[in-house]
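Please, structure for the following, as tokens.
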Amino acid sequence: MKIQPLKGMRDYLPDEMRLRDYVQGEILKTYRASGFERIATPMLEDMENLDKSDGGDNLNLIFKVLKRGDKLDAALASGSEKELSDMGLRYDLTLPLSRYYAANRANLPAPFKVIQTDRVFRAERPQKGRMREFVQCDIDILGDESVNAEIELIDVTARALLSIGFTDFTVNINDRRMLRGMLGTMGFPADTLDSVCVTFDKLDKVGADGVRAELTEKGFPARAVEALDDFLRAGDFALERVAALCEDRSLGENLQRVLDTVRRLAGDRYAIAYCPSLVRGQGYYTGMVFEVTCAAFSGAVAGGGRYDEMIGKFIGQKVPAVGFSIGFERICGILMDQGFVIPADKQKLALLYRADADFAPVLKKAEALRERYAVTVLMQQKKLGKQLGALEAAGFAAAAFADNEDIKELGQKAE
């Protein structure tokens, strides 16, 4: 029998779980205080839903579940690979939320402000920062088409990050409709814009030369590639300039309103910036998209956007929707690497009792001590000095004894 978890999945030690519980608790506290309500959905979804979800590259990373019994035999006999699976593990929480809303909308408030914190699964190639099983912390607003929904999500997410000690971060924002409008004006055919956006999204990594080379390699019109290259090399990525290249001027006005409003809310606690190359990978985003980056760390620690067409796939009518997801695993990893100490966490105390002790009074004493300490009840070992040394190494601040009133400090001063 193998004792190690599967590749891309992890066991968590007690110290890690304490941190994870604290981070999730602080995030949930902020979400709930802002009027969002938590739901839960199954880990498994119908394969038809997953296949039609416009999840971008994630559609290639679905863990599929084989059919069972006679259905599997029939699928094998058909020779069709697609017939082998009828369900799969969810790769994010947006598709399940959309299905949930479609099924339960008659019993839900409008707008619906919702929390999801749960595990998702992707058949990634395991590496640092990329796991096959991980937790997402999402908030979404369904049923509000105004930009107030974007503003509120940014505000709540930023406050959640601040509550767990993150500072000096920037909320980057763009509107995919504005980007597509600009690219269309430059001469890229409408049915190729998704591919162009994927390349444009690499600007920060490959530079203008890399973007031009990839677009040329893909065979896009030389005139359009030249126009985009001129735009990039001019170095003027101001919102006003991009908005001027779009027929729908209201897109730029709405984006400016979000930027201005969030700046007023942020004060000097965090920054917000227009990022014209921000696309995000999921194909279901239809409007504004956002990511949170920190100068001290590479990559994003949160991201999201508007997906007004996803729910309509289930019910045949458009329902405005926008969501923001905190990168829970990435944040926990950063805090662990920094040696983060949970604020106001009670010191750990071991209450030691002898083997022949009456256990009920021991537990009553532990209950009284818990007003000041996080108390663990343990049987006293014959070699007390060795036991106390092990407790100190495990992070205990003190030890108490069931048969007397002594409290022995371990390493650091007990309260």
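Residues 14-33 form the longest helix (20 residues). Residues 99 and 222 are 42 Å apart (CA to CA).
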